[in-house]
Amino acid sequence: MKLSESPSVPAAVWRDEAVRGFLVEFDFGRLSSRLRELAGLRQDELAEITGLTQGFLSRLESGRARLTHIDRIVQYLDAVGAPPDLVRLPLRGAGALPPSESHGCGSVEQIRKPGRLVPVEAADRASDFQALSVPGGLLRSRA
After folding, report:
1. Which domains does the chain have, with CATH numbers?
2. Other C-beta atoms within 10 Å of 1: how many?
3. What phi and psi values does residue 121 have, to the nearest 5 degrees?
4. What would the pLDDT profile of 2-34 be if each residue is shown by its tens digit?
5. Cβ count near 97 (within 10 Å)
């Protein structure tokens, strides 16, 4: 990369099978590391692109931190140019999930709300809490 160019993630990285797998798994640490490897970026450059700090990105890649807030995940994926058709999140240009796929396996997922469990569908309508079921857990966001 030339000094005058802003760091960026080339579109070709999204054809990489490992990148696609990490994206499906919501493994943002391994995704970040692989994106940097393919794009020839340093952590500080990817941090500049994503708006994360270099320190947080280092912890993310080492598995000591996770991206769990839906707003930060959307910001991260949008910043690195993740194609909407590869992401099951509300990125610009992405269509809504079909009802049969929105909460996985056709069953009602349960989440913990202060003092009780509620169906994801109910949490999605709640004014103070939203959740998205993903492999390995739930992504949470304050409304």
Report:
1. 1-92 (1.10.260.40), 99-143 (no CATH)
2. 12
3. -55, -40
4. 555 889 999 999 999 999 999 988 999 999 999
5. 13
> Which residue do the tokens 């994206």 mark?
23
Query: Per residue in 62-101, pLDDT tens?
Result: 999 999 888 899 899 999 999 988 887 554 554 444 443 4
Neighbours of 29 (CB within 10 A): 19
CA 69/CA 137 separation, integer angstroms: 12
This prediction has a pTM of 0.64
CA distance 84 to 93: 6
Residue in this structure with the two tokens 């919501």, named with its chain if needed = 26
